[in-house]
User: Fold these one by one.
Assistant:
Number 1:
Amino acid sequence: MKSHGFAALVARYNQPVPRYTSYPTVPYWYEPFTAAAWMQRCRETFAASNHREGISLYIHLPFCESLCTYCGCNKKITTNHSVEDVYLQALEKEWRLYQQQLDDAPVIRELHLGGGTPTFFSPENLQRLMQFLLQGATLHTDAELSIEGHPNNTTAEHLAMLYALGFRRISYGVQDLDETVQRIINRIQPLENVVRATTEARRIGFTSVNFDLVYGLPKQHLAGLQHTVEEVIALRPDRIAFYSYAHVPWTSRGQRLYDEQDLPSADEKMALYLAGRDMLTAAGYADIGMDHYALPHDPLYKAWQDGSLHRNFMGYTTQQTRLLIGLGVSSISDAGHAFAQNHKQLGDYYASIEKGELPIFKGYELSEEDVLFRKYILDVCCRGKVEFEEAFDDVLEQHCKPALQALLADDLIEWQPNGITITATGRNFIRNIARCFDVHLLRQQADAPAKRFSQAV
C-alpha cells in the first residue's frame, strides 16, 4: 500500500479503542465483587490447570521516587524507602491468603514485577519478595520471570540479584530521549543511563530486553522522535513497545501540569507514529500488533509466527496459563471465567489485608457469550484469524458482521467460509478489528441514539 494511502487509513481509524487485555473491558465490571465469588472461580481454574500449565503471577510494586507527569499507572510517589518493608509484609499476607485456599502447591509458570518502579525496591528486598513467593510453591521448568526497570536506578546489584533468582527478561521505560520532552514529563533520563542499564543486563545474562517508547508526548516533534528511535535501534533491544500517549488529565492529575497546546496536533501525532513505525520495521523489527515489535530471534516473534501467542493483563506473552493471580494494590486477576481487581488505594488495600481478607473490590463473572467473544478477540490479537462457532450466531450476525463489513473495503480483513483472516494491512489495526467483537461496546453504541432521543423527548 502506498504511504499516503496508509496514512489515510491511520487517520480514519484513529479513535479511542481498548487495548483488550481483558474482555469484557474493565468499565463493564461491577462492584462490590466478593472475595468468595472470586475464590470459587479461582479454585476451579487452579484445580483444572495448575499441574499441567502452571499459573501466572503479577506483582504490582507501586512506588516511584518522582512523578512522571505523563504516566497513567497506579503509583505512589515517595522517597521514603521504609515503605518497602510495610508493603512486602502485606504482599506476603495476601499470597498466604491465596495459598490457604488452594488445594495444592502453586506451579509458577510466569511471573512479572510491574509498577510503579519495581527497581525502587532494594536488591535485598526483591530477593525477600521472591523467597516468600516461592515458599510453598514451585517454579515450572519453563518458567519466565520478568521485571520492569528504570534506567536511572537499575543497578548492577539489582541485575545480578534478579538473574540469580531466575529473571531473564527486563523492560526499560525509555519513552523519549529529547531533553525538552523529558523536562516537561519530569523524567530526566540521560542516554548513557539507558546504555548502561541495557549493556549491564546483557553482560549479566538477560536474554530479552524491551524498551517502551511513547509517541504523542508534550513538546514531542518529528526530528526528536526520529533521533530517539535511531538511538534505540543502535542498542538493538529484543522487543519494543511503541505506545500512543493517552491524554486523560481527568484521571491522571500529573497531566494537568502541562497544557493541551503543548501536545502534538492530530496530524503531527500521526506523523510521529508513521515515522517510528517505518524506522522500526526498516531496522528488522516485526510488527506483532497492538504497538509491539520484536526481532526475529525473540520468543515473542516466534510465538506470533507459530500461533502460540497469548495476551493477558501483562500484555503479549508466550505463556499459556488459564489462571493469573495479581498481588498488590490495584492488581487484576484472571481465572478465565472471572476477573477480580484489588483496591486501588493503598490505605484500602492495607486495611483489607490486616483484616485477613483478600483486598478485592471489583470484578466480573463471564457469561457463556462473554467467553466465546473473548476467544474471538484473543484470536484477532494473537493469531490474526477467527473461526466462527455456531453458538450465539445471532449476536454475530446482528452486531459483529456489520462492523466487520465496514473494514472489508479498506482491505483490513478477508472473509473466509466460516470466519475472517486479517490482512497484512489489517495487522496495523488489530485493536479496531478486535473492537468488532466487543459486543458490550457495540450494544451500548447501538442503544445510545435511542437513549438520547428518549431523553430529548
Note: Residues 35-53 form the longest helix (19 residues).
Number 2:
Amino acid sequence: MRLTEISYGTAKPIEGYGPGFFRVGGHVLKGACLITPWDAGLWGGLDDTSTPLSLVGKIDVLFVGMGAEIAHVPLPFRDALEAAGIGVEVMSSPAACRTYNVLLSEGRRIAVALLPT
C-alpha cells in the first residue's frame, strides 16, 4: 500500500478532539467552536446563526457536528443558512472533524461548527 502525505497549505486542520475540546493549530478550544480554513474560535451554539452567516460568499457548506450522536439542527438554523446559500450537513462531531479535514485537503470551501462530545 502506498501512503500519501496530506498537505493543507496554510489552512488549519483539526488536529484532535476529546471530551469537551477540539485542537486546531496547536490551540485547544473548549466548548462549541467554529473552524474555517483560516480561523478557529468559539461559537455560540445552535442559537448563533450570525457567526456562520458571516461566512456567506466564503464557504459553500457548513458541517455541523452535533456532539457524540447525530441529531437534527433546529429548523430556523438550517433555514437561515440555506437561504443565504450555505449548505448544511449534519453529523456527529467526530465524523464532522474527519470529513472537514478530508475536504480541507482537497481545497474545498468549507467550515465546521462543532458541539463538544
Note: The two ends are 33 Å apart (CA to CA).
Number 3:
Amino acid sequence: MYWTMGIILMVLWVMGLITGSTEGSWVHLLLVFSLVAFVLGVASLGRRRGLA
C-alpha cells in the first residue's frame, strides 16, 4: 500500500513539474510525501520478514 501511494505521489510530482503550473514550491511536498511513503514501505517490508 505504501508503494502504491509513493508511486502515485511521485507521478503527481512529475506531472506538476512538467506542466509548470506549480504554485510556488508546494509541488515539492508531493516528492517529500512520496519518499516518506517509500521509506515506510521498506520499513514495513523488513518488519514482516523479521529484519527490523
Note: The chain has a mean pLDDT of 78.
Number 4:
Amino acid sequence: MSRKIAAFLVALGAFMIFEWINLGFNLADGHPTGFYVVHGILIAVNIVLGLVLMFLGVRALRVR
C-alpha cells in the first residue's frame, strides 16, 4: 500500500470517529426510543470502522 493511501486511511478514520461522535452529541431530544437505538448502533459500528481504518493506515505507514 502506498504512503498516500495509508495516510488517507488514517485521515478518513479520524474524520469518521470525529463526525460520528459529534452526531451522537447533536441528537435532539424528543425522538422515540427506536430512533436512539438505531443511531446508537450506527455510531458504534462507524466508530469501530474508523478505528479499523486508522489501524490499517498506521500499520501500513510503519511498515514502509
Note: The chain has two helices and no strands.
